[in-house]
Structures are given as C-alpha cells and as structure tokens.
Design brief:
Helix content is 66%, strand content 0%. The protein folds into two domains: 98 residues, Rna Polymerase Sigma Factor, Chain: A (Orthogonal Bundle); 87 residues, Winged helix-like DNA-binding domain superfamily/Winged helix DNA-binding domain (Arc Repressor Mutant, subunit A, Orthogonal Bundle), CATH 1.10.10.10. It has 190 residues and is mainly α. Helix 4 packs across helix 5.
Length: 190
C-alpha cells in the first residue's frame, strides 16, 4: 500500500503520531481532513471571508508548529478547534478588526431559483453571528457549527462547563432576538 493511501485510512491519533515523527504525508492528510471545519470556525468567528482566510492560514501554521506539543489528552479535533479559535481571535486583535454591529439585519433573502430556505436562513445567521460579542459567539460557533460537546468547548476555551452552557444559552437567546424570535440554533421546539 502506498504511504499516501495508508495515511488516508489512518485515524487522527495514528496520523498525529506519524506527523510528530516527521511524516509529511500524515501531516497533509491530517490538515486536509480538518481544513473545512477549521475554516468554517474562523469564518463564523471573524464574520467575513478575508479575515477568516488569514486566521485559517495562521491556525494551520500554528497546528503544524505546535503538533509536537500536542499530548493527546483531548482529541486532535478538539485541540485543532482550540488552536483555530485562538488563531482567529488573535488575528482579529492583531488587525484591530472587530465585527461591526449593524443597525439592522437585512431582510431574509426570498427563496427563489437556486436559493432555498435553508440557504437563506444560513445567510441570515451568517449576518447575525458577527453581532454577538466574542464571549458568546465563540462558544455558539464551537457548539452549533463545529459540533463540539460542552466538555470539549470548556477544554478548548479553558473555562468551566457551566460557563460554556451559560454563554451558549445567552448567545442563542441574543441570536434568536436578532433573527426575529426564531428558535435558537441547536434548540428544539417543545
């Protein structure tokens, strides 16, 4: 079996071990496997594509530089999301860019040819997320976009799980208000 094919079939833990020993194919596979989620986290935290691209690039470089310090106490996925979140926040601070609150959200785009309700809802959510403070936006993104559980988010952000729950609940409530009192993302109607 070719080394690249073996890397594709490997678990994250196996790829990490091989990458820590200098296996470039393992590193490339690992980064490729997690790129989309890392970029999505950066885009949702930064609020725009240009800053997200810069932050994602910084996050990937930080992952490569810091992989030798990754000790496996958490999953690689959790660790990479923590690195991405921190890289994104650092990039925004470095550039002194903050999401600019808008007086009003644009109306939800009408569904039409090529634009279904789910896409319109996502566009509206993408517009609302930057209006949340960093304190609430990051945990909401890690939960509702990255799919991390509360313990993983607590580990990623270095805060207690109860604080994570509180920030997510408050962030979702604020989003719901911005979106016209719709059910917050990730919460079901009774």
């Amino acid at each position: 079996m070719a080394p690249y094919a073996a890397a594709i079939d490997a678990t994250d833990a196996e790829l990490v071990a091989r990458a820590q020993q200098g296996d470039r194919a393992a590193m490339e596979t690992l980064l490729g496997r997690h790129y989309e989620r890392v970029h999505t986290i950066c885009r949702r935290i930064a609020g725009n594509e240009a800053d997200a691209d810069d932050a994602c690039q910084e996050a990937l470089m930080a992952i490569v530089r810091g992989l030798d310090r990754f000790d496996g106490r958490s999953s690689f996925r959790t660790w990479s999301y923590r690195v991405a979140s921190n890289a994104c926040l650092d990039e925004m601070r470095r550039k002194n860019r903050r999401p600019v609150p808008r007086d009003m959200l644009p109306e939800r785009p009408d569904s039409g040819p090529g634009l279904d309700a789910a896409v319109a809802d996502r566009l509206t959510l993408d517009d609302a997320l930057p209006r949340l403070s960093e304190e609430f936006r990051v945990p909401v993104v890690l939960r509702d976009v990255a799919g991390l559980d509360y313990a993983e988010i607590a580990d990623t952000l270095g805060i207690p799980p109860g604080t994570v729950r509180s920030r997510i609940a408050r962030g979702r409530r604020q989003l719901a208000g911005m979106l016209g009192n719709q059910v917050p993302p990730g919460e079901r109607q009774s």
